[in-house]
Amino acid sequence: xxxxxxxxxxxxxxxxxxxxxxxxxxxxxxxxxxxxxxxxxxxxxxxxxxxxxxxxxxxxxxxxxxxxxxxxxxxxxxxxxxxxxxxxxxxxxxxxxxxxxxxxxxxxxxxxxxxxxxxxxxxxxxxxxxxxxxxxxxxxxxxxxxxxxxxxxxxxxxxxxxxxxxxxxxxxxxxxxxxxxxxxxxxxxxxxxxxxxxxxxxxxxxxxxxxxxxxxxxxxxxxxxxxxxxxxxxxxxxxxxxxxxxxxxxxxxxxxxxxxxxxxxxxxxxxxxxxxxxxxxxxxxxxxxxxxxxxxxxxxxxxxxxxxxxxxxxxxxxxxxxxxxxxxxxxxxxxxxxxxxxxxxxxxxxxxxxxxxxxxxxxxxxxxxxxxxxxxxxxxxxxxxxxxxxxxx
Length: 393
Prior knowledge:
Elements: H1 2-32, E1 34-41, H2 48-67, E2 75-82, H3 87-99, E3 105-108, H4 112-125, E4 129-131, E5 146-148, H5 153-166, E6 171-177, H6 180-192, E7 199-206, H7 214-222, E8 228-231, H8 237-247, E9 255-257, H9 264-270, E10 278-281, H10 297-311, H11 317-336, H12 341-349, E11 354-355, E12 360-361, E13 377-382, E14 385-388
Parallel strand pairs: 1-2, 1-3, 3-4, 4-5, 6-7, 6-8, 8-9
Antiparallel strand pairs: 10-13, 11-12, 13-14
Helix pairs in contact: 2-11, 3-4, 5-6, 8-9, 11-12
Organism: Rhodopseudomonas thermotolerans
Pfam families: Peripla_BP_6
Family: Belongs to the leucine-binding protein family.
C-alpha cells in the first residue's frame, strides 16, 4: 500500500511539474509574441492637463496598431502608471517598468520634474526613453538613451523674442512659475534675450499653488518702460496671471505665454482676459488654418479628428507629443526589425524627415529632439480661439 501511495505521489508531482513547465513555456511564448512598452504619465494631479491627453492618445493609437496587426506581427502591450505629477513616484514606477515589467522602451514623462527623476533609471538600464516634457535640459547635454518630442523652453524663448523684436520692443518684464518648467524656461529666456536686443527690466515669480498674482503684476506695472510681459509657466498659474493682468488694466501691454499652456483649456480658464495673448505652439492647434501645401496639414488634421472623435474633447498639443513619440518609436522598431533596446535606440537617433504634430523631426547623435524654430507657430487668441500671427507682425 505504501509503495502504491508513493507511486501516486510521484505521478502527482510529475504532473504538477509538467503543468508548471507548460505554463512557463506558454507564458514565455506569449511574452515573445508581444512588445512591452512602458509609460509613466501625470494622468491625475496638477499636471493632468498634460498627462490625460497623452494617456488617451497612447491607448487610442496602440489599439489602432494592434487592430492592424501590431508591429511586425507582434501586438503591443502598453504598461501605464500614473505618477500624479510626483517625481518620486515617477522614479519608483520607472524602476518597476525596468525590473518587473521588463519593457523594451519607455514613452512618457509628462513634466520636466518627473522626466528628470526617471532619466537615470533608463540610462542605467540602457532602455530608450522618449519624453513628452518641455525643458531643454532633458536633451542638453545629450544622453545616449534619452529623446523628447516637444519643442524646448529655449526654443519657446527664441520664438517669443523673435516676435518681440519684430514689434520693435526692447524692454520686457517676466513673471515666472517656480515649478521645474517655469524655472528652466526663465533661465533660458534670460540667456537668449540679449541676442534679440531685449533687456529684462523687471522680474517676479509665483508658486504652483498661488491663486492670485496681483501683487507681483502691480510691481511690473509700476516698473518704468515695460513694453511687453513674458510668462514662463504651465498649469493654472498662467491663466491666473492672464486674468489678474486684465483686472489691473494692463491689457494694452502685450502678454506672451509659453507653449506650456498650448491647449483650449487655457483659453477657457483665462476667459475673455486671454484675448490678444500670444504664445508659440505646434501647428496642431491651428490645423484647419494651415495652408493646404503645409507638409504637416495632413498629419495634424487626421490626429485632431481621430482624437476629438474618440474622446469628445478638444485636441491639445500635449496629446500630439504622445502621438509623435509613439510613432517615432514604432517606426524605429520597424526599421531595426527588432525590439532589442540598443538597436531601437540607434534607429530612433536616425529618425529623418518624420512629419509629426510638433514639426518635421530629423535627429542625430548630437540632437535628440530634431526640431528647429520653424516647427513653432506664433499664435494669438482672437474671439476665444487660436489664430496664426503673420511673421512680420
